[in-house]
Amino acid sequence: MGDVNIFAVIVAAISSFVLGGLWYSKLLFEQAWLRESGAPSQPGHPGKVFGLSFLFCLVSATAFAVYLGPAPELGHAVSAGLMVGLCFVAASFGINYQFAQRSMTLLAIDGGYHTVQFVVYGLVLGLWP
Predict the structure, then answer these.
(1) What sign does the CA torsion over 51, 53, 54, 58 have?
(2) Which terminus of the chain, N or C, has less C-beta within 10 A?
(3) For 46-58, how does the pLDDT look when each residue is reduced to its tens digit (9 = 90+)?
């Protein structure tokens, strides 16, 4: 853990948080996500939702930085982000979504977000080792 650039991890977590705000906004997928997920338009207490979401961003960015190791090569970091996002996170969602009878549209939205999230983590951590 000592070789992890904590500043790069924090920037990666912030980038994920910003990406999520854009991804699930009216500009991109908010309406489709609300329709497909059946979630209320106003989730729980905003402070709790955003605080815990950012904490999870920090956890995932830190774990990914540890996985990549110190000073990862940019191409490797980005391709690892693509693999983790698509093949680990989105595929795992796919399993759950099938049993929960959730739509492929919802899987594409949520899995797409996490795929882009880890690619951006790779960009940040590869550019700022």
Answers:
(1) positive
(2) N
(3) 788 889 999 999 9
